[in-house]
UniProtKB/TrEMBL annotation:
<keyword id="KW-0630">Potassium</keyword>
<keyword id="KW-0851">Voltage-gated channel</keyword>
<keyword id="KW-0406">Ion transport</keyword>
<dbReference type="GO" id="GO:0005242">
    <property type="term" value="F:inward rectifier potassium channel activity"/>
</dbReference>
<keyword id="KW-0472">Membrane</keyword>
<comment type="similarity">
    <text>Belongs to the inward rectifier-type potassium channel (TC 1.A.2.1) family.</text>
</comment>
<keyword id="KW-0633">Potassium transport</keyword>
<dbReference type="InterPro" id="IPR040445">
    <property type="entry name" value="Kir_TM"/>
</dbReference>
<dbReference type="Pfam" id="PF01007">
    <property type="entry name" value="IRK"/>
</dbReference>
<keyword id="KW-1133">Transmembrane helix</keyword>
<dbReference type="InterPro" id="IPR016449">
    <property type="entry name" value="K_chnl_inward-rec_Kir"/>
</dbReference>
<dbReference type="GO" id="GO:0034765">
    <property type="term" value="P:regulation of monoatomic ion transmembrane transport"/>
</dbReference>
<dbReference type="GO" id="GO:1990573">
    <property type="term" value="P:potassium ion import across plasma membrane"/>
</dbReference>
<feature type="transmembrane region" description="Helical">
    <location>
        <begin position="142"/>
        <end position="161"/>
    </location>
</feature>
<keyword id="KW-0812">Transmembrane</keyword>
<dbReference type="InterPro" id="IPR013518">
    <property type="entry name" value="K_chnl_inward-rec_Kir_cyto"/>
</dbReference>
<feature type="domain" description="Potassium channel inwardly rectifying transmembrane">
    <location>
        <begin position="31"/>
        <end position="161"/>
    </location>
</feature>
Length: 162
């Protein structure tokens, strides 16, 4: 049966039991007592796109293992993405050791000479665990703006992901 009408129904049946107070008919439950959804969607064209249309409900209905993967991947992805941006700042400013900076050169971010160092600086900045020996200097206004941008964007991301 391929009807284009949307059908949403509950699998529980209405019972005719009489409560002590109220209307007399029991309402169907949206969720069963053991936590499973009681709503079924049938005869809906392009059902896959409904999940993209309503991401919040999709996330609520998602299994826990996928939620944990999404949660972890979001943090690791932003750490890496901003790590790449920090590395590009170091390249643009000539801070890497292969550029052989002069002795009086002040780097934008101290002790960031590799992509790994940039990743660790990004992680330290975003998790606010405090800076060890990697920190930004006053030499580079771009680094200050980038740090503020990273902290604001990732805070907004944390609001929606947690």
């Amino acid at each position: 049966m391929t009807s284009s009408t949307k059908v949403f129904y509950s699998q529980t049946t209405q019972t005719e039991s009489r409560p002590l107070m109220g209307t007399g008919l029991r309402r169907r439950r949206v969720m069963t007592k053991d936590g499973r959804s009681n709503v079924r969607m049938e005869h809906i064209a392009d059902k896959r796109f409904l999940y993209l249309k309503d991401l919040w409900t999709t996330f609520i209905d998602m299994q826990w293992r996928y939620k944990l993967v999404l949660f972890s991947a979001t943090f690791a992805g932003t750490w890496f993405a901003f790590g790449v941006v920090w590395y590009l700042v170091a390249v643009a400013h000539g801070d890497l050791l292969e550029f052989e900076p002069p002795a009086n050169h002040t780097p934008c971010v101290m002790q960031v000479h590799t992509l790994t160092g940039a990743f660790l600086f990004s992680l330290e900045s975003q998790t606010t665990i405090g800076y060890g020996f990697r920190y930004i200097s006053e030499e580079c206004p771009l680094a200050i703006v980038l740090l503020i941008t990273q902290l604001v964007l990732t805070t907004i991301m944390e609001i929606f992901i947690t």
